[in-house]
Each structure stands twice: as structure tokens, then as C-alpha cells.
Amino acid sequence: MAAQTRPLTQTRRRLVVVVAGLLVLACDRAMPGRAEEGPDRGPGPGPQYTLVYERVVGGNQDLYVVETSTGLERRLTDHRAQDGMPRFTPDGRRVIFSSDRSGSFQLYEVALSGGEPRRLRSNGFTEWQADLAPDGTSLAFLSKQRGPECLFLMDLKTQEERLLVCHKNRSILGNPAFSPDGRQITFSSNHSIGHQIYLLEVATGSERRLSGFRRGGCEPRFHPDGTRVVYVSRGHLAETSRLAELDLRTGQEKILVNWPALNYDPVYSPDGSELAFASNITGEYAIYRQNLTTGKSWRVTHGQGEARYPDFRPLTADR
Description:
- The chain is mainly beta.
- It has 2 helices and 24 strands.
């Protein structure tokens, strides 16, 4: 779930007011990490990428972009409101994000080159956490237009929307993410046995739970090959969280990151060779990259200001 209680942003501090269920709190409760284990020193080798993420600088949360080849950071949005939860569009030219600049959280998009963001929907409801289908034709997002938080799909051409998932009245959903072929969406929900991750078939609306009962899970994202899902695994009120990878074909789970810290917001690189994520291993959340073959990790963001929720620019994007 993207809505996590943490010391770094107002976005998730507001969300904790409505969070219910012990496993939800277990997925969200932020504790300081220890620095004796974790990332390696020095720049990361291998492919270089463009990353977008949310960051708090001077008490203000905005979107930032970094080219990992240079490490130079660029501010993408500049508003006194909270801008966060960014996702690249499939063509890599724009970034979809959530902002409360209208008074309640709504969905916006901004060009990667910068400029004035454009509002994607306009209503008085809380709407956030969106992901664009791989073919760019439809948008999956969370909305409270029916009371509880529900998952919707909107056709971008016709503006017609379809209800995909709506659980119990007080259910909290999070982080919808399309599969590479657009046929499935993975998301999280606390509707029955704590916060768990689920897999939804878009065509039929059928869903099934993916995460184990005892540890639960949140913040799922698909691997580029569509056969695996990475997510946050954390037990009841644990002081640390792991990043786990679930093979959808075999059901086997592999732990990718197990630092003595709270590790969140995992996303695969476009070629599947790396993972980007946020960790408070130093006591303050920052963005890291990890090579999935060697296990070596490097810090991406530096200086004052906590950072979370990274996303990679697609390799197919025009450069």
C-alpha cells in the first residue's frame, strides 16, 4: 500500500488516520534503521536510468528526477501542496502523480521536461495512486467516490470508467500496478485478513490473494517478464520489512532485500536486472538501487530531504 505512516511526508501521515487493522499498521509503522548493514559504497555500475520519485525538501513534498549516470537531481514539480506517488507513462514522456493541490488528492500528469501539470480528473473525491495500462489507453486508480476506497479503470479516450474492486466499507486498497501485457492488475487490500496483495484479472474481475497469511504484504509491482511480483513483506508491528519476490508460476518466494530497516516502494528496472526502492537504513528514507544478480546496492539520493516511491523511465522511451 502506498499510504504508509512515516516521519517523512504529510501524504502518508494523513493516511494513517484512516488506516485500520493490525497488519495495515504492521505494513506502515516507520522505525529507524541501522547503518551497519545495507548498501555498498560508490556509484552503481551497469545500466544507467532515469528515476522519478517524491522527496521532501524544506518541508515541501514534490517530485524529483535523477539521471543515475550523473547523479544530478532535478525538481519536476514545485507547489506548496503534496505531490507524490509518481508513475511514468509507457512512452516515458510524462509522469502521472497524486496531489492535494485542489484541496483533496486528485490525479495529475506532468511532462518529464517540466511545465504546468494537467489534472486528469476533476471531482471532490479522494482519488490517487494511478497506473497507466501498457498500451496507454486506460488508467487504473483508487477512488472514494462510492464511500470506501475502490479500484477503478477509466478509458482515457471516452472517459468511461469501470469499477474493478470494491471491498468492505472501511477497506484500504493500495498501489494498483498493471502486468506487462495489461491483462492483470496487482494491488493490496486489508479487507479480510490484514493487508495482503492480490492479483486481478481485468477482463473477468476475478481476484486471488498472493501473499502469505502470517506476514501479509503491500506495494506490489510486476517484473517486466510478467511472471513475478515484488512486494513488501512485514509481520505484525515488526521493526523491519523485507522486499520479497513471488514467482506466479511456482508460488515460490525469494527475499531480495532484508536489510535491518524499513524497506519499501520496490520497482524493477525496465530490463529486470535491478530493483529500486526506499529504505531508512541510515535513519532517513532514501532511494537505492540493487543489482539482482550480484546483490550489490547503491544509494541514489543524497543530502537533506527524505525520498520515497521511485519509478524507472521505460527503456523504450524516446531519448
